[in-house]
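Let's practice the habit of predicting before peeking. Look at the sequence and jot down your guess about where helices and strands might fall. Then scroll down.
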Amino acid sequence: MILQHKTWQENFTTYTSNLIEADEFRKQNWQSFLDKGFPSNSDEEWKYFNFEELFSQTINPFYAEKQTDLISESEKDQTSFVLPECEENQIILENGQIKSQKISNQQIIIASLDKAFSDYSELKIKYLNQAAKQDVFTLQNNSLWQGGLFFYMPANIVLNEPIQISLLSNSPHCANYSRNLIIIEDNCQAEIFIYCTGLNSSADELYLHNLINQIIIGENSQVKIFFVQNESKNAFQIAYTDIKLQNNSNLDFYNLSFGAKTSKHLIQADFLGKGIHHNLKGIYVLNNSQACHSQVTFNHNKPNCSSNQLFKGILSGNSKAEFSGIIKVKEGANGTSAKQLNKNLLLSPDAKIDTRPQLEIKADDVKCSHGATIGQLEDEEIFYLLSRGISKEKALEILTFGFAEEIIDTISIPSLRSFTEQLLTLNL
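Done guessing? Here is the structure:
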């Protein structure tokens, strides 16, 4: 394993020296990456991650200047999946580069993150290093991302139609480093659908998608974000989403995971004002030998805020999942109400789930709860449906949908709700 780590480091250093040397921020982060080294299973956050499976692959860093041929071959396919509700509001990125955009409200600013940081140096100073997680993969992203998305919604905008952001990976045997900065100012309303997939997902290509989302929600804003991971079945995705919430904001975040051979999503939300409410709902549906790792940290820093986490997993074959969630109620965050629940349905005796819900409370007058369940379909339920003339395959589908509908039924975009149901069916 140590040799594999060294090979990866040497390979990436060879490919990336020109990019890194040109920017002091990248250079510092790359050096931190080299000093820190890759984690191992002795690190609590990576205890269940199969590093051997990742590091045994030949994956090179991807370069924007090398993607001309790839783009020209794939442009005809880029709009192959857009929700009908998002026809007038869509942004398509390929390997981290904006390829097309269409927005009905011209007050919204959309640009490459490179350009935004170049034109507005204060943005770079304020946000680039703000993402708190500094593990080896975020350090890699800090060093190697190119292009990126800057999405800025000024105050007092109400969008009546959702926006789709498609993050397409078209980099076989390469690593794609994506970075998105989404800023929604005060008194806004918006729905955003973020869709991650391989451009040629039917080919089940191998690649690594390393992604950082930074999301800032202003005071009194009401926002829904739907993050759907549907990468190629041989791909790896490692994502980090950093959320900052201001006074009286309300965020519903959906984390829906169906694709990738191995995926890991670290979600951190910081409650930076009073009266905030944050719902986090997650579904992971795994089959064959897929693995999914969900790690959540909610930092309740201010009083009178509430949060509700509900993650549901459906596992078949010899798939593996991990849920690790912690609610931290800081000193002075009185009046906090926080719930966390992870429920799992195992459809195979070889499927495995490791779940660790946690609370860390340093304030008074709080209402907090956490829990986890692991179960199987009841024989009596299956027998009842069979006795009504329903096939066993259809009975399993009905019961599994019944398990997931508590989350799926709350998806407010009709075609996305239908698409989620389709993905669930395909993964059973």
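How did you do? Residues 2-427 form one domain.
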